[in-house]
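ARCHIVE CARD
Drawer: 12
Card no.: 0347
Subject: one protein chain, sequence and derived structure
Cross-reference: see card 0346
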Amino acid sequence: MSEFRTESDSMGELKVPADALYQAQTQRAVNNFKISGLVMPKQFITALAYIKQAAAQSNYELGHLSQQKAQLIERACQEIINGQHLAHFPIDVFQTGSGTSTNMNANEVIATLASSYGDGTIHPNDDVNMGQSSNDVIPTAIAVSSVINVVYELFPALEQLSQTLERKKSEIGEIVKTGRTHLMDAMPVTFAQTLNTWQYQVDTAMASIRHSLEGVSALAQGGTAVGTGVNADPLFAEQFCKNLSANVGIRFVPSKNFFYNIGSQDAIVSLSGQLKVLAVAQMKIANDLRWMNSGPLAGLGEIELEALQPGSSIMPGKVNPVIPEAAAMVSAQVIGNDATITIAGQSGNFELNVMLPVIAYNILQSIELLANSSQALADKALRSFQVKQSNIDKALAKNPILVTALNPVIGYEKAAKIAKQAYQSGQPIIDVAEQETELSRNELETLLNPAKLTQGGL
């Protein structure tokens, strides 16, 4: 049996692997774009299948596609949605900027599958791509795949992270530790205040991402080639969004301006920007954990992260903060992805953005990485770290910055002298203050109470 079969398109004939579900246009793209070995993400292919499924349903309901053809296309799409046939989407990410090759890849695979179920032939363009253009399908697939993965993957991970921080506050929140500014000793804070800062960063980032989804959920589908909607039923966009929303379980609406969605990727650039904010927040949390865990003898040693694996191939017994390090690297990658998406977003030339595939690849990678790293931080770092109370108490008792509380009583200059003397002598600040002022021990204990100082005020 031959390993190839002959397929043809408007440009002529060429050989395609015998067992491939795709046809001629996909093979041309495979031949042309041997660039990275990276293919479009599974989430993007799934979104394409949802789009083709909803399009077939809508074209049938509007009287343009027979019920038999619509059902065959829907069945093929459902198999792809279920995770089958992904090996038949081999086109490189770095391809034609409209993503036409990937759209035709989907059309051809779906047409081949649908034709195999029945007696008739399903055509990739005339049937599967009816009322559509690559120019509205690919922007729609970017939007749909992004929304699906934010709603079903990222938000649950962020909610778990926030809930983990909430539980940790109830466990250790009352413990007072030395605060730090410029990495130097500062006024005391509670663990609740530190953890609440991280939680507020996560919750605020999640709220901003949720807000950005409003723009992403308004779809290009129905604008076809340039935004005018040529070759699409005037009722198609509304019917499409109705069917897609029912199939996915998330509400989508037609864009109020198809030219905007096809000529620009501003909504995705905005979403990417909010993902970058989350990445920056995650970097701060990861670095705080690394500093607090540093040591265990020569660092801050305020907490002890769960030991997950040996930390060195040469130094026995060494254990490293591997989860915060991984999360920090994710943050760096997401920030880089945002730069790529920003540059790609500038490539809206007249009626079409021509960097759509690389936008899709990067936005979906950012969502996936942040979802996975957030879950790892929650499960393997924040949930299980232990407080090293003796180290915290020792540093807090000798913290010369506590003398700040005496400013209103003895003045800044006198307080500064006491702080320097305490630091140089290694004595607790309360002992030096008792020697250098007329304040009683009881008065000093009240004024210098670290727990009280975390509450602010005079």
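Annotation on reverse: Residues 176 and 190 are 4 Å apart (CA to CA). The two ends are 89 Å apart (CA to CA).
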